[in-house]
Design goal:
This protein has eight helices and four strands, in the order ααααααβαβββα. It has 178 residues and is of the alpha+beta class. It has two domains: 101 residues, Orthogonal Bundle (Peroxidase, domain 1); 72 residues, 3-Layer(aba) Sandwich (Glutaredoxin), CATH 3.40.30. Its main location: membrane.
Length: 178
């Protein structure tokens, strides 16, 4: 996985720079998301892996599927990826682009999985505390997992905060055994 991210990073940065210069982060985000979804389709994967097709033919066939969602810069980006045999990196490029976009917009997507549904007040307070902790605007997405005994798991980027009863008991048992 790290190798794919390493290969995808320069393309994501280039797309991000282009999007920033055009003041079109949202448009590029949508285009990359669409292209990534198309590239993960089984039939499209077979097409991309076909050694009999030239890079130009791969790009043309790929663009015939999703060119309506891509602007002129997006089409050129797809052609560049095809030329460098990197179309299969589109999901990683899209993911890295979203991370760059979130950093630039000073926002953070946070997922909260709790034992019980959060009330509006709880969600608001949690969002405020996380906003102070990460110094960013927080977009909170919550879900319920009834298998949790109590508490919540918070995922914010690379950070995972395990505030579940099960997690606390595991930490206590580890402390007692060491």
């Amino acid at each position: 996985m790290a190798e794919l991210s390493t290969l995808a990073r320069p393309y994501a940065k280039a797309a991000f720079t282009c999007a920033q210069q055009a003041s079109n982060l949202k448009g590029w985000s949508t285009a990359l998301e669409t292209a990534a979804a198309v590239s993960q389709n089984e039939k499209v994967r077979e097409l991309l892996d076909n050694p009999q097709l030239t890079s130009e033919e791969r790009a043309d066939k790929f663009l015939s599927i999703c060119s309506d969602e891509l602007g002129e810069h997006g089409k050129n980006f797809i052609r560049l990826l095809a030329e460098n045999h990197r179309l299969q990196l589109l999901p990683e490029i899209s993911e890295l682009f979203e991370a760059l976009k979130a950093r630039a917009e000073a926002t953070l997507e946070v997922e909260v999985v709790s034992a019980q549904a959060l009330s509006n007040t709880q969600a608001q307070k949690l969002g405020e505390k996380l906003s102070k902790k990460f110094e960013r605007e927080i977009h909170l997405h919550s879900s319920v997992d009834h298998s949790l005994l109590g508490g919540a798991i918070i995922r914010a980027g690379d950070t995972v905060i395990d505030g579940t009863v099960r997690g606390r008991l595991a930490k206590l048992a580890e402390a007692m055994n060491s």
